[in-house]
Amino acid sequence: MAFSLNEDQTLLKDAADGFFADHAPVASFRKLRDAKETLDPALWGEIGAMGFAGALIEEHHGGSVMGLRAMGLVLEAQARTLGVSPLFQTGLMGATILKLQGHSAQQDAFLPKIADGSHSFALALDEGAHHAPHKIDTQATKTAKGWSLSGKKRFVPDGAHAQTLIVIAKTETGLGAFLVAGQAEGVTRHALAGVDSRDLADVTFEAVALDDAAYLGGKPLDETTLDLILDHGRIGLCCEMMGLIGASFDMTHDYLKTRTQFGQLIGSFQALQHRAAAMLVEIELTKSCVVAAIDAMERGKGVGEAVSLAKARAGDTLQLVTNETIQMHGGIGMTDAHDSGFYLKRARVLETVYGSSGFHRDRWAKLHAY
Amino acid sequence: MTDIETFRHETRAWLEANCPASMRTPMPESETVWGGRNATFKNPDSKIWLEAMASKGWTAPTWPKAYGGGGLTGEENRVLQDELRRIHARPALLSFGIWMFGPVILEFGTEEQKQTYLPDMVHGRTWWCQGYSEPGAGSDLAGLQTRAVLDGDHYVVDGQKVWTSYANHADWMLCLVRTEPHAPKHEGISVLLFDMKTPGVEARPIKLISGASPFCETFLTNVRVPASQMLGPKNKGWDVAKRILQFERTNISASGFGSGAGLDLVDAAKESIGLENGKLANSDLRSRITKQRMYERAFHLTMRRGQEEAKAGAEVSHYASVLKIAAAKLNQDKTELLVEALGMEGLGWEGEGYRPEALKATRDWLRAKANSIEGGTSEVNLNIVAKRVLGLRDHQ
Predict the structure, then answer these.
(1) Pick the CATH number of A223-367 from 1.20.140.10, 1.20.1260.10, 3.30.2130.30, 1.10.10.10
(2) Alpha carbon distances (Å) from A132 to A125, A230, A305, A347
(3) For the complex shown, is ipTM > 0.90?
(4) How far is A303 from chain B (nearest CA, A)?
């Protein structure tokens, strides 16, 4: 297994860390949040120009072919500074769905636009508050001219701004994935104000008329492919979570080394030293799981098990670290002026999207037949 | 064929020819081989297997051939371990000497010491024990009081060691002694190597809550040790001691505190509690078992990551403490959950009415309570991580 980064990946990681630190520092997120905005078009343009959005896309579609590990490094760097962009939903989810389910005309039409950052996507999957990828009521009905789509998707990440929604719906022959323009007639998007101040929307589809070109791959979306698509997404979420874990832990580590009480640095108190060290143990264990999940995906072996392990562990570790960050900062950590609250809020959303730790423990146990 | 492929090919053929069939079956605890002067082999194949492996130096595969080792590169050793696993070969020899003491003798010893001690370790002719803890020096190991005073060309050692693993079986001890009583505590310690038959050495087994006695108290009264048997410079023994602790923690982590084949947690829970709709009928236990299994998987992945990063030349010394903390937690959680999964059958002590493997689970659970104490308590290891990795300072 390749746990260490190769030379190209190390260069990319440094470039991505530098890029987001310069172009999307936490202060930028704070400004967006204060302005109640959930999209930063300038940043998205720069991400496209850097080639990050095309990491999973082949050269002949204008991509940079850097691979999933590279995409993970970029997502991790973006999460560290709380950068806001459609990179996850577009560069990872959109590209993966098109590659795994789209036919070549659909790939030719859209992959180049993902690679250059000129088009954004959002996967519209879940219909309730809990991730349930196989419980779909949204219905696509065959018509003379194509399809008619009706139903309601809830809590769609990037659902308010994405130019194209990828809607998972029931058809007569099983599930299907449909490309639906965000502005299409019959589509109503209600932006939600989530705790993490990101683009999130409920989306209603009322007899939306689609042509046949909207039906991805022109064939049903089987459960295995849907799981594989979601497992790509979960890996991306794990990488983002590692970014939050890293930033949150570093912030706390710095505070332990600078904050003085009782005439001592608080980091000299054993009660806090042990809790900081215990966090580091959890972080090291979790990091190995995330890399192993990427490795499993690249080899195409034991994917579900490896991904659920990573998502469950990353969720638990992130929860621990973000809670300890607030506690170890004391009162200042409770203030809106301090950044630790941003990490806490974002953390819980990433822990929940595409399955909580509990969801993934259940899945893991099922995969092991108990 | 590349060199490494040739090596694999030859190794496979050699193992095929030299590993007895009974050495490819799961090893009952009673057939473990620790070697030593008084070695007994319950299964005669164990002796054949040990001698074959030792003749290749493969009980200590990466040690130099000059001292009886296998002289293998790291890559060759990984191939050897792969091939051993492939045929489910039992370990030919369990040896604190090979795991912990040989490596520091290689690093700190004189040429004569290397020639004297290492080949015997490789061949399993000596069983070594570790004279570290004392009644007044547990977590505060550097506070040890056993004294060694130079008398002509001998040191005279007086004091008491405790928690000395298998001292009652061991042939040799690597012992921390105080040679400079007035120096700051870390600067007056030296390391002596001596034969357990030396007059004045007495080991008494300590009975533990599990009923077993893997540890001893060792009394040292007027023990005369040739000065040539000091390892490393006088009063610089703490550096040697710390290196050994790193090897010890890494080794404990690598073995995962395993105590031989026992019941599998999930299988035992399924059998004892049963499934409903394909899920373990106790959903609370199911979730906790899954957390433990995930932790175990994460631990093994981290072991591999540490090895890989070390190979790539990264500084990984902190993994020893991180993994020791994790290994203790995972084994304690695992044994605790297994006892819980077995219900009342997990709480037998001996005799009829309990399956032998359930009795083993009970004893393993009790034994595991020491995991967060031995080889440095989890608290001491957390101190090490806080100070050496996170750079947090001591209280002023």
Answers:
(1) 1.20.140.10
(2) 9, 11, 18, 20
(3) yes
(4) 14
